[in-house]
Amino acid sequence: MKNALILCVILLLLVVSLVSSFQPSGRKLLGANISLQSSGKIFAAQPSKNNIFSFFTSPKPSPTQPQKPKFPTLTVPPNYNVALGCLAIAGVCAVTKNYGAAVPLGFIGSFLYIQTGKIRFLFDDEAIEVVVSKKAESGEEKLSQTRENFAVGGRNRWKYNSITDWFFIPSKEFPVLVYFNENQTSPKGQIHFFPVLMNGKTLYETMAERIGVKRP
After folding, report:
1. pLDDT digit string, tens, across residues 108-127
2. Contact 112, 177 (CB under 8 A)
3. Cβ atoms of residues 43 and 128 within 8 Å
4. Are 12 and 38 in contact (CB under 8 A)?
5. Cβ distance 176 to 160 under 8 Å?
6. Residue 114 in contact with residue 86, Cβ under 8 Å?
7. CA-to-CA distance for 121 and 73, rounded, in angstroms?
8. In what order do the strands lie in the sheet with 175-182?
9. What is d(CA 160, CA 153) in angstroms, rounded to the nearest whole number?
10. pTM over 0.70
11. Dihedral (C-alpha) 44, 50, 52, 56: value to the nearest 10 degrees?
């Protein structure tokens, strides 16, 4: 039960951060950049037809295609393993009459279960971001920004090249927490911990592909 109590304390601290940070800000995320032309093409300037020197100008250049992003935008699907694990441990503690651990673990498990249905990790071409998912009346999923980070302020979005190291706790085979350190918030480095409320395998593979495997 000692390990369960340690896990309880860690998750309790994360709950505080989740309550403070992972709330919708009311700002919707755009699914793509807005182009100047409806066709998505950017055209070079054309010489005027009335210019008498237009005959001597070079041929009109063909329109250039917009540069394709290196990585497609991806949202990691939710996974309830961590929440259900907490609830299962709470149930065992309750059966063994260890109510001191059962009550907080039950509360944390219930809270994480709710948050799993709302919190998403969004990966775009250049950064990872924590966003809030909400279903529209049409049934489509809409994503919005979370509130500013409760600890250091600012948007919960970090560029891939700012992340200096990251790993899963206790392991990638059994992910409960994801840790990463980034120097975007502070040049000295800023540490973050998040419960793995999404598919751990997809999360690991996406981070390894876009950030690289970086351990301290």
Report:
1. 999 999 999 999 999 999 99
2. no
3. no
4. no
5. no
6. no
7. 11
8. 163-170, 175-182, 190-195
9. 19
10. no
11. 30
